[in-house]
Specification:
The complex is a heterodimer. Chain A is of the alpha+beta class. Chain A is built from 34 helices and 42 strands. By secondary structure, chain B is an alpha/beta fold. Chain B contains seven helices and eleven strands.
Chain lengths: 986, 262
């Protein structure tokens, strides 16, 4: 090379490839090889991935060498190659050999981001170069090069790209033309302020306008908007329509659950009809109001539910869903789901500190045959891996432990998986109230605004379809956990300095929802050109509704503005004053002195017409299956242990940092070798206090296939049962509801939701446990060709309980040989929706029912038995019933167990298999040491509870049946192996 | 009474074990401050007010361009002189997890000199995955001031995706052994060298933590700050554990060493 003078290049860029040296493993390539084999492609012998960086700017040869040596390469394990590339050549048609390079039986494919997609590494790269004293670097784009070794034809490579390497929403195969576009950019096409003529439109035209602009508004809503503008005597601007569409979306407004419903229930004595003015108010909210717990601080108001924790802090909890984005781009969808719910916690009160995350997923089974995956959808294996990786990436990088979750499987999730993300925060008592006042500045903090995530709120309010991938290419957001981490650090520091008076997060609907909500009580004026942008060319409407991640909005007294901006600046976080709160009662939007939109706040927030929706519940006509009686149930037990939903989720759990922040007391895996499934998570959010919180969840959509009312009651009971199972009391326990349902305009779908809401009320009232927050996600279905796949209506109940002493809990693993094993509760022949029936291909009709009169007392007794040291291990019975729970308890503790079914308190006439696998609720296995048995029996006098077996000195699990003959016998190792096998090697 | 030992808990964008690391030093009797790397770069002299520099775990800069790389370059760039002075005064450094990655990539470990060529690294786990699990650690003879007087077998959690310790060549390994620089080996519950999962990442020689030849600069992948209480141990109930956890001793060692020197 010649002199070390920098050359400014507009016509060229440099390409750095960084490869792991041959002798070191390259894990992403290895993982890919497995995924390729999952596709049924066996010709790939090896995959190696390498990082590619394209740089442009004024760089000398010395700069290039330093970038390679000191920034990009780990000299021990990696090596780099530098190449200069011309950007001049106009891209003609690209031939296939330019896309895939083939050499020595290795096909090389490179995958990069599409132009306009924010490259997550660019900023770090530039910063690193600057630290090395390199100032001329202007642009950086990254890509990944995959070398696929093996005899592969072009069709196979295409398939690998399509199925695994490229997510067309954000990525593409790198071609010379692509590189040119990345650096030279696509000329932005400015769109003038558009007004949309609706005043004269008839219904057909109104509906078409709604469709053309992807507003997802129904005809009644379009008519209300028309009436408003007729009064205003002008046509609306596009930005106004967008604002109304976002604010009125199902996602933001929850029109269905809050609106009137005419509900018809088919009963044996004929249909019974009633009008429900607001389902939420009549069920979920009503339970909380009636219970009026003094420790509820803020319910259904703020960004999360808040309850009292100790003298100094409150604790808050929120669970959100991010289903549609996760269906299209599992990694990004799940990551931004976590990111969003974390911002809900940061946006509660004046900002809470996130201390724990939870996640619950529903997928199609991993072994779904590829031909059963509808066109346009990813295979469930890829969705599962992507979602888990997304949660792992975002949660771990935020430094928030992911401590509790569940994973469920059903074919009906093949077109629409469910991804629930929860977060818990600690809120100082004196920071619980926000107050927006006219005159305060509207300050946007965090990431910059781009085109990503536009129409997310309206997108999540319509069903997914084969075309979703195309229509919604901008609807998927890309997460950047480090930006959010900086934002969180800066925000909490500014909170403690008292620099702002209100905060909320930018979620669905972006600024339009966040600012619109904050200013609802007074009025607000926004200057959209002041919003920091990722790139030029965004229209005012795009700025206003963009759902770019990692952004929050603050209300800042003018006097603090300068200090606040400086504080955020020190954390490397941008803070920009973009407007002010007013007293006008109007939303006013300006762009460079031009008024681009204005709306009356009252109309914006209260103008949405109430639509009376019909709902109907018809009990399905179902039958109990006839299953031949068997003398041997070991095989059935092994099958149940190895079912996707029951088996070990160790591969997921270990990928999450569940111990960061140091608060972990009861970890998700427990037992002698940390391989048993805990019933709930217990943590101490303050390291200087023994006070703890318990987190658990209840969910099982299969019961809802029989009766959504009992599904809801069972979900509440399961969540609380798990609180009790670790020794928690219900004295200060609260719950959250998350409804994920199909299209609510279908009367049967809405009918089942109504019935589930009734169950929520009855259960919450019976257990004395208030709801403090909730969310619904409707329109979860997938349309393709002429078919529609509806998800089963799925209710997640998440529980949080505050306990005085985190050290007074127990884990589920059997502790010592010689202890007695007690089973509490009554076992009934109610196997409808059970794992056992499902494993035999049946649903059944006898859904388990909770005895709401007696169940609360049993939960309290269990909790007391544990707190008073009588029970040294406890495990609740859920999917797979007694058999699965007892087996888990035994192998987790590495301690043998013998059980006699004749001792079980049960309904008359039951068979061995029914007793062993019934999923009757409110049942627990308790390990009681010999010296405590007397006290234990006294405590439980008059309640259903029986000694059904004991812990043995030999590592064998045995069950004696009603005839006195042994019906199950298996070494612990065999049981554990069956439980661990399904996800081994993931 | 001696003045409190002052600890700089270094924070960069993405540092996330800072609170519990500071808490650990508090429990050990020291006075920790959070020091932002941006502020330190503006005024490197701040460092001289501390006796211990702690680089906590996390994902500084999101692991972009390799775990610990960007912060390592900051230590060997604008902060180099301040750090050289700090070490010259025989002060202590501990890097945990991401902090260990930073120290190794800055060339500070194993040699002890700021910005010397990298002799070792922490690369992708053999499992190819980020994993959170508890491990057993065993000590052999070593000069590390942070690990003296500890129980022979120790349990701490690891939580990382890039923790496999590898060296440039065999001579580095021989030096580490020869100078007593290997502070911890991964082992099985009996204390024997063993494969995965006991050695969770496939580290060469099952090395979990090393120090420089002086013993004052210490880096390790496991998290001692997550075992300050028995309650944090995964089997505290089974084994009837109570009181402080095994990690506390490490922080006490550092603080007491500074106190003894006065």
């Amino acid at each position: 090379m010649g002199s070390d003078r920098p050359r400014t290049t507009t016509g060229t860029c440099w390409r750095f490839v960084v490869r792991q040296k041959e002798e070191f493993p390259e894990p992403s390539g290895r993982g890919l090889k497995g995924d390729i084999q999952d596709l049924g492609i066996t010709a790939v012998e090896e995959v190696r991935a390498a990082s590619v960086y394209y740089c442009a700017g004024s760089l000398s040869p010395g700069d290039l060498q330093r970038i390679a040596r000191s920034l990009l390469v780990d000299p021990i394990t990696q090596e780099a190659e530098i190449q200069e590339l011309s950007l001049e050549k106009e891209g003609a048609a690209v031939s296939s050999e330019e896309i895939f390079r083939v050499e020595d039986g290795t096909v090389t494919v490179e995958v990069g981001y599409r132009p306009g997609v924010r490259d997550p590494v660019e900023e770090s790269f530039k910063r690193g170069a600057l630290e090395l004293g390199i100032r001329g670097l202007q642009r950086v784009h990254t890509a990944v090069e995959y070398a696929l070794k093996g005899r592969l034809d072009a069709g196979t490579v295409d398939r690998i790209c399509e199925k695994l390497l490229v997510n067309p929403t954000i990525q593409q195969v790198v071609t010379p033309e692509h590189i040119r576009l990345l650096f030279q950019g696509v000329a932005p096409t400015p769109i003038p302020i558009e007004s949309v003529p609706i005043l004269q439109a008839n219904d057909t035209v109104l509906q078409r306008i709604g469709m053309d602009y992807q507003l997802s508004l129904n005809l009644e809503e379009m008519r209300a908007i028309q009436a408003y503008y007729r009064q205003e005597k002008r046509e609306p601007t596009l930005i106004e329509l967008e604002t109304l569409a976002q604010t009125w979306s199902e996602h933001c407004k929850h029109k269905t659950l809050r609106g009137p419903i005419v509900y018809t229930e088919e009963t044996p004595s004929g249909p019974r009809k009633r009008t429900i003015p607001s389902l939420l108010k009549e069920t979920i909210v009503k339970a909380t109001e009636e219970l009026a717990r003094p420790w509820c601080v803020s319910v259904f108001e703020d960004n999360s539910g808040v309850i009292r924790f100790d003298e100094e802090y409150h604790v808050c909890f929120k669970v959100e869903t991010h289903n549609h984005p996760s269906a299209l781009e599992p990694f990004g969808g799940a990551a931004t789901g976590i990111g969003g719910v974390i911002r809900d916690i940061l946006g509660t009160g004046l900002g809470a500190k996130p201390v724990a995350s939870t996640d619950v997923f529903c997928f199609a089974p991993p072994d779904t045959p590829p031909e059963k995956v509808p066109p346009g959808m990813l295979h469930p294996r890829r969705i599962i891996k992507g979602v888990v990786a997304g949660v792992k990436d975002y949660g771990n990088k935020m430094g928030i432990p992911t401590v509790n979750g569940s994973v469920l499987f059903d074919e009906r999730f093949v077109g629409n998986p469910l991804v629930y993300c929860g977060n818990v925060g600690l809120l100082p008592k004196d920071k619980a109230v926000k107050e927006v006042r006219p005159g305060m500045a509207v300050v946007a903090v965090g990431g910059r605004t781009g085109r990503d995530g536009i129409h997310g709120a309206t997108f999540s309010s319509i069903p997914l379809s084969q075309e979703s991938e195309v229509i919604s290419s901008t609807a998927v957001q890309i997460g950047d956990p480090i930006t959010e981490k900086r934002l969180a650090d800066a925000l909490l520091e500014a909170r403690d300095e008292g620099l702002y008076a209100a905060v909320t997060d930018c979620g669905a609907g972006g600024f339009s929802s966040a600012v619109g909500e904050m200013g609802a009580g007074c009025g607000v004026r926004i200057y959209l050109e002041k919003v920091p942008l990722k790139y030029e060319g965004l229209t005012p409407a795009e700025i206003w509704i963009s759902e770019s991640q990692e952004r929050m909005v603050l209300a800042v007294p003018q006097a603090n503005l300068e200090r606040l901006i400086a504080l955020f600046g020190r954390h490397g976080v941008e803070a920009a004053a973009i407007g002010e709160f007013t007293q006008t009662g109007r939303l006013e939007l300006y762009h460079k002195t031009e008024m681009v939109g204005q709306l009356d706040m009252k109309f914006l927030h209260e103008g949405v017409p109430q639509v009376v929706r019909p709902a109907r519940w018809t009990p399905p006509s179902l039958q109990e299956p006839v299953i031949p009686a068997a003398a041997e149930l070991t095989g059935d037990l092994l099958t149940l242990l190895g079912r996707w939903e029951t088996c070990s989720k160790e591969w997921i759990i270990r990928r999450y940092d569940h111990e960061v922040q140091g608060g972990s007391v009861l970890k998700p895996l427990t037992g002698v070798r940390h391989q048993g499934p805990s019933d709930a998570a217990v943590l101490r959010p303050r390291l200087d206090s023994k006070k703890g919180i318990i987190l658990s969840n209840g969910i099982n959509f299969r019961y809802g296939d029989i009766d959504p009312y009992w599904m809801a009651v069972l979900a509440v009971e399961e969540a609380l049962r798990q609180v009790a199972a670790v020794g928690g009391s219900l004295d200060q326990a609260a719950i959250l509801d998350n409804f994920c349902w199909g299209d609510p305009t279908r009367v049967e779908v809405l009918g089942s939701l109504v019935r589930a809401a009734f169950g929520c009320y009855d259960a919450a009232a019976a257990f004395g446990t208030p709801f403090i927050s909730g969310k619904d996600s409707l329109h979860n279905e997938y349309r393709f060709q002429e078919k529609t796949i509806q998800i089963p209506g799925t209710l997640l109940i998440s529980a949080i309980a505050v306990i005085p002493d985190a050290g007074a809990v127990v884990s589920m693993d059997a502790k010592k040989a010689g202890s007695a094993l007690y089973l509490t509760g009554v076992t009934k022949a109610e196997l409808g929706g059970s794992s056992y029936y499902h494993s035999k291909g049946f649903l059944g009709s006898s859904v388990p029912r909770v005895d709401l009169q007696k169940a609360p007392a049993i939960l309290r007794l269990v909790s007391r038995s544990i707190r008073e040291g009588m029970a040294i291990a406890a495990h609740d019975l859920s999917e797979g019933g007694l058999g699965v729970a007892a087996a888990e308890m035994a192998f987790a503790g590495g301690i043998g167990m013998s059980i006699d079914l004749r001792e079980v308190v049960r309904q008359e006439g039951m068979r061995d298999d029914q007793i062993l696998f019934s999923e009757s609720p409110t049942r627990f296995l308790l390990e009681v040491p010999a010296e405590k048995e007397e006290a234990f029996r006294t405590l439980w006098k008059g309640h259903p509870c029986a000694r059904i077996g004991r812990m043995e000195g030999i590592p064998v699990f045995r069950v004696t049946g009603l005839s006195g003959r042994q019906v199950v016998q298996a070494p612990l190792g065999t049981l554990q192996e069956a439980w661990q096998r399904p996800f081994q090697g993931w | 009474m001696a003045a409190a030992v002052k600890v700089a808990v270094l924070k960069g964008p993405g540092t996330n074990c800072d609170q519990e690391t500071a808490f650990a030093f508090e429990q050990a009797g020291a006075r920790p401050d959070f020091v932002w790397i941006e502020q330190l770069k503006e005024n490197p002299a701040v460092l001289s007010g501390y006796q211990i520099l702690a680089i906590p775990g996390g994902f500084t800069y999101g692991d972009d361009l390799g775990a610990g790389r960007l912060m390592a370059n900051e230590l060997t760039g604008r902060l180099k002189d301040a750090l050289v002075d700090f070490l010259k005064q025989q002060k202590l450094v501990i890097g945990i997890c991401n902090g260990f990655q930073v120290l190794v990539k800055a060339g500070i470990l194993p040699g002890g000199a700021v910005g010397s060529p990298q002799e070792a690294t922490l690369t992708f786990n053999d499992s190819g995955k980020f994993e959170d699990r508890w491990v057993y650690l065993r000590q052999e003879f070593n000069v590390c001031v942070w690990t003296q007087g500890m129980e022979e077998l120790l349990e701490l959690p690891v939580a990382h995706g890039e923790g496999k310790f590898v060296v440039k060549d065999q001579t580095v390994l021989e030096q580490l052994l020869g100078y007593g620089q290997i502070a911890f080996h991964y082992c099985d519950p009996q204390g024997n060298e063993a494969g995965y999962p006991w050695n969770p990442n496939g580290s060469v020689g099952a090395i979990a933590g090393i120090c420089d030849p002086s013993g004052r600069i210490f880096g390790l992948m496991p998290h001692p700050e997550r075992h300050m209480f028995a309650l944090q141990h995964p089997r505290w109930q089974r084994e009837g554990l109570a009181g402080p956890g095994q990690g506390l001793r490490i922080f006490r060692n550092g603080v007491e060493w500074v106190q003894k020197r006065g």
